[in-house]
Amino acid sequence: MGFDQKGFLVFRVKQGNAGKWNVMEAGIEKPLASFDTQKDAIEYAHDLGSTKNGSKLEIFNERGVQIAEVDTTSSPRRE
């Protein structure tokens, strides 16, 4: 499992080579799911993370630069 140094389970939303937005667990190369839009990928990742105590979501832009980090266990999903 992809844990950070503080013990958080980390999920990442990144754009893949085919232009799809992938939801990945940190440290695992194969996406858990792929979506046409970043918004759909973020919603899925947030919902997934909210079921796991002590998880966070890292969101990256099209260039692969991290633009946000969200504690999914304490923050409501953004619409």
Structure description:
The protein is an alpha+beta fold and 79 residues long. The protein has one domain. It has 1 helix and 5 strands. It has one helix at residues 38-50; strands at 9-15, 21-25, 33-35, 55-60, 66-71. The longest helix has 13 residues, at 38-50. This is DUF2188 domain-containing protein.
Give the topology, please.
Layout: E1 9-15, E2 21-25, E3 33-35, H1 38-50, E4 55-60, E5 66-71
Parallel strand pairs: 1-4
Antiparallel strand pairs: 1-2, 2-3, 4-5
Summary?
This is DUF2188 domain-containing protein. With 79 residues, the chain is α+β, with helices and mostly antiparallel strands.
Keywords for this entry:
disordered N terminus, alpha+beta, DUF2188 domain-containing protein, 79 residues, DUF2188
Helix content: 10-25%
Instruction: Outline the low-pLDDT stretches.
Output: 1-5
Euclidean distance between termini CA atoms: 28 Å
Query: How are the strands of the biggest sheet laid out side by side?
Result: 3-2-1-4-5
Mean pLDDT: 86
**In sequence order, what are the helices and strands, one letter per element?**
EEEHEE
